[in-house]
Amino acid sequence: MYRRINLLLMDFYKRPTWNCRLCSTAPRATDERDPRPFFFDQHVQKLLKTLTRVDYEKIFATRRDETPLKLPEFKFMTDEELAEAREEIGKKANRRIQMPPVVKIRSKEPKVLVKEPELQGYEETNLVFTDISFGKSNRNRIIVVRETNGTLRHANSNERHRMNQIYFPITGREMHTPRMFCNPYLKDLLEQGKFEFVLDRACLQFEPDDPEYHRVTKQVYSYVNKLRKFDALRSTRHFGPLVFQLAWENNIDSLLLELIESENMEEAGKLVRLYHKVQPDAKSRQETTENDLQLVKLYVELDSPDRYMLSGVIPKYEEMYKEKERLKRGIMKAHGLIDDEQEVQDQNEKSKT
Amino acid sequence: MAKWIFYSSKLIANCIKSTSIASNAITVGLLSPQALSLQSTRNTSFYIKRPAAQLWKSVTSVSNAGRRRGRGKGLVKARDLNQGQKIGHGKVGMLFPGLTTSVIQGEYPVQQRRLTQQEQENNSPKIQPLIKPKRFKLHPLKRGWSGGQPGGRTIGPPDSVDGDAFNGFESWILYAKPISVMTSTMGRSKRVRSMVITGNRKGLAGFAVVTGREFKPAVNLAKNRAGLRLMYIERYNDHTVLHDFFSQFGKTKVFVKQKQKGYGLKCHRVIRTCCEAIGIKDLHVKVEGSDNILTIVKAFFIGLLQQKTFEEMANEKKLHLVEMRKENNYFPTVLASPPVVRTSKEIPKNEILDFKQYVMNGKVALEKRKRDSPFSKLPSWQFHLRKQERLRNQDDVVIKLRAEYDDVCSFHVEKYPEARAPKWSKHGKKKEEEEVET
Q: In which domain of life is the source organism classified (chain A) (predicted)?
């Protein structure tokens, strides 16, 4: 009897749909919702960008991609020219950290156009017709397949990829999926901490609605989240999708913890706001407060799946913050910037509020 | 009666003796007839007739006239050939009565025989082995620039001055050569001139020239004096010069170019050694005119010391000096800013704003055009190029196939196993055969 139950359970666990815990508060239907409108929302984009932290040094850091180095260019510049160059580089940075879109996985079933059984057996192989006329993008190009049984259908994603790569090759994109996205190698790369490399190549190789792209990125994101190596992806174009994915899966706790521990309450507040945008049925969404700390506290109380971990950190942060404030006031007082009376007044005001 | 007994016993004894002799002779083979092999030997020779001293003299002596012409060089020197060996003792241990031992020990005469190993160890006399003079061998990396010349050899840091040690310093001999001067009283007097550069590879370096009587003291003095004449040389990011420059000393012209990391030192070996001492790692230098070592070093050092720092340049131009690197997507890094910056209206039209021209004072070095190879116009070269064209991507294809299929093979290989490139290496072929057998 027990053995049978065990076998049943094993079978149950092995199922691919088994991706969330029992009794978990995470909504089961995350995969069914379409993230596209949420991701392209203006506010969400803004929040994601601020959470990415635009650090020019990291964005324009030297990449070790075997290109030989060149001599630096030296230039004499006036103030205006320097400002112009900086503006230009700001634009470049924006282009560099433009996030790859997070969209739903595309449907596998290709649309059938006509079924003509009279053509059955006319050819021994499928015939693929590709529209290679000028001005069509790879996504909306018409590619159809005549099967041997006479069915005329749109090409499936694999065939589209092959045809597009044959007629309009993208440099760096391979015809077959590179081995580095398969598991012994992918695991090695993750252990070496080469997240950006893997994600960059995934962006190059796959379309954003490719199931393979989703598999690879999700594996990288979960690894980064598990080991809390968020700094490796900060200031790259992949940090936004990472945060979005975490918020989408109701899994922002470790990122929130990292932000609070690094005393970045403003960003923590932004993260919670993002969470509210992405998860409309969150309980803490109804309470409206402007204070970041209050917002985080409410989230921890009402929505956090791992409440105990976070609730321990917040009092520590508050204590630290108070200590810092006191030190700051002390320094100001020592420099003669604040009078004692003023201080008393301030304190009174504080106690009133 | 007694006489009879005596005779008979004598007879018996004789009989026994003769039979034993006969039996012994038979075993040795003395009684059987033998063909004698005659070997002609000459018991006198040139080497036996003359005493050793005379023989040695004939090999080792050169006439005075010959010696003056340099014939004495590389001659054999007389040495004791008996050194390291003793008569009667060799590799195989033998007992020679009368030579290595006394003839009679106790009551019995000693027999000649082979020694056992233990006896040999105990009895062998202590002979000093022949010591061959050991050749002094320098490590290949410390042998200097070329051949047996001292140029380019390292000789360690200078001696400490007043207790201050030169930590992290290293010295290089640039040259050490014999020179001769004619004096009125002594005639031709020989001396040694040496030039040494010392540096800590972090920007500090100095050099000195010393003329002395002997090789070693001259070099050492030059090394210590170089340590007293240190100069600090600014470097760009600790790896190259601040900017391109030209400098001249005497007839020697030096064109120095700043280079990127990983370029290396492509210059005259003397300048390469100077760069090593200073700590410059990437550089290109063209030396023109006289290639005297002293003038090259002086020209190079003058140029280095006359380099402008970025602050000086910015202050002179009253403009920001900005560095942009291709690998960092031309991100503008401000290297130096003046206190007051000019506006674009204040800059005259004919002012040089190009950094390279400004650094070279508006001059342009004439660079020789690289000529085509003489064979490039031959029809055979065109033929070769045509033949090579189809192989131009072969290496990349092999790498790609190895990444995809672990082997150089067609994508048909699952269906047709023969669609695989033949293995050329011995090992691979063997392995393949083994696989086929199993």
A: Eukaryota
Same domain, A320 and A296: yes
Query: How many angstroms away from the CA of B242 is the closest CA of chain A?
Result: 11
Q: Is residue A234 part of a domain?
A: no
On whether residue A283 sits in a domain, the answer given is yes
**A84 interfacial to chain B (CB closer than 8 Å):** no
**Helix crossing, A211-227 with A195-205: angle to 10°?**
170
Kindly report the length of chain B: 438
Q: Is A106 part of any domain?
A: no
DSSP state of B136: P
The model's pTM is 0.73
Residues A38 and A126 in one domain: no
Please tell me whether residues A61 and A185 are part of one structural domain. yes
pLDDT tens, chain B, 438 aa long: 667 777 777 877 776 776 666 666 555 555 666 667 777 777 788 878 888 888 898 888 888 888 888 887 888 888 888 777 888 888 888 888 888 888 888 888 888 888 888 888 887 777 777 777 788 888 888 899 988 889 999 999 999 999 999 999 999 999 999 999 898 998 889 999 999 999 999 999 999 999 999 999 999 999 999 999 999 999 999 999 999 999 999 999 999 999 999 999 999 999 999 999 999 999 999 999 999 999 999 999 999 999 999 999 999 999 999 999 999 999 999 999 999 999 999 999 999 999 999 999 999 999 889 999 999 999 999 999 999 999 999 999 999 899 888 889 998 998 998 898 887 766 766 777 777 777
The distance of Cα B425 from the centroid of its chain, to the nearest Å, equals 34
**Interface test with chain B among A58, A78, A92, A181, by most B beta carbons within 10 Å:** A78
Which chain B residues are Cβ-neighbours of A179 within 8 angstroms?
A: 403-404
Please indicate, yes or no, whether residues A275 and A341 belong to a single structural domain of this protein: yes
Asked if residue A203 belongs to a domain, the reply is yes
Chain A CB within 8 Å of residue B405 CB: no
- Residue B323 forms contact with A (CB below 8 Å): yes
Asked if A119 contacts A127 with a C-beta cutoff of 8 angstroms, the reply is no
Contact (Cβ atoms closer than 8 angstroms) between residue B332 and residue A86: yes
Identify the domain containing residue A132 by its residue range: 112-155
